[in-house]
Amino acid sequence: MRRVILYIQQDKDVHKFLGGNMSANHLSNRKNWQMGARITGDTGENEFVKHLAENLPDHYTVQLKPPKLKIYPNGKGIILDAKVTNEKTNQSIFVEKKTGKNGGNAHERVYRNMMPGVMQEIRKIHPNTPKLPVFPVFSGDTFQRPAYQEKLQIDLLGVPYAIMKPNFANISDVAEQIMDII
After folding, report:
1. Helix (H, G, I), strand (E, B) or coil at 61
2. pLDDT band, very low/low/confident/very high, at 9 (cuts 50, 70, 90)
3. How confident is the model at residue 136 (pLDDT cuts 50, 70, 90)?
4. CB 123 within 8 A of CB 129
5. Fewest CB within a 10 Å sphere: which of 88, 97, 101, 159?
6. 162, 174 in Cβ contact below 8 A?
């Protein structure tokens, strides 16, 4: 709960910094949207990790919210949603999981982790990761829509990724895809 409060406070600070003049009602609705999105996102991440772990052999570990990858100056970095490690090969891959319920641009926020410089820095810190160290996973009503699936097909050409079917019906296929990578 505290994280949500800090996130909302940060949003107010950004608003003040930009000098905007949003109505109190608009800000109130925005906070509720952000809080709902955060809850949806956290639930999607937790459920994915639980289902994935159940569908991988015992020599794989799945870590929810691994430590920050400090890829920028002054200790700044990124926190990805999960890390999967094959204990037999010592190979790992990070997972960035996005859940969409009502459209939006969650998929576009994944792309920042796919930038060549970001991937290079991740591999410097974790050399036991593949050339593409981040595996994007999408779920929810948004990503069941053909328009979003077609966009992902183009935007992520050459990048392994997964779109979860409702109720994680294809989780064994996604687990297999991850095992093929690491």
Report:
1. strand
2. very low
3. very high
4. yes
5. 88
6. yes
Is 42 exposed, middle or buried (CB count within 10 Å of its CB: 0-12, 13-18, 19+)?
A: middle
pLDDT in tens, 74-130: 999 999 999 999 999 999 999 999 999 876 777 788 999 999 999 999 999 999 999
pTM: 0.78
Structural contact between residues 63 and 39, judged by C-beta atoms closer than 8 angstroms: no
**What whole-number distance in Å separates Cα of residue 26 and Cα of residue 12?**
12
Give 91-157 as a 3 state SS string: EEEEEEEEECCCCCCHHHHHHHHHCHHHHHHHHHHCCCCCCCCEEEEEECHHHHCHHHHHHHHHHCC
The sign of the CA dihedral 36, 112, 86, 123 is negative
CB 46 within 8 A of CB 95: no
Tokens of 142: 């948004």
H or E element, residue 84: strand 82-86
Q: Six-digit token pair at 5? A: 């409060």
- Please name the residues in contact with 85: beta carbons below 8 A apart, sequence gap of 6 or more: 60, 61, 63, 91, 92, 182
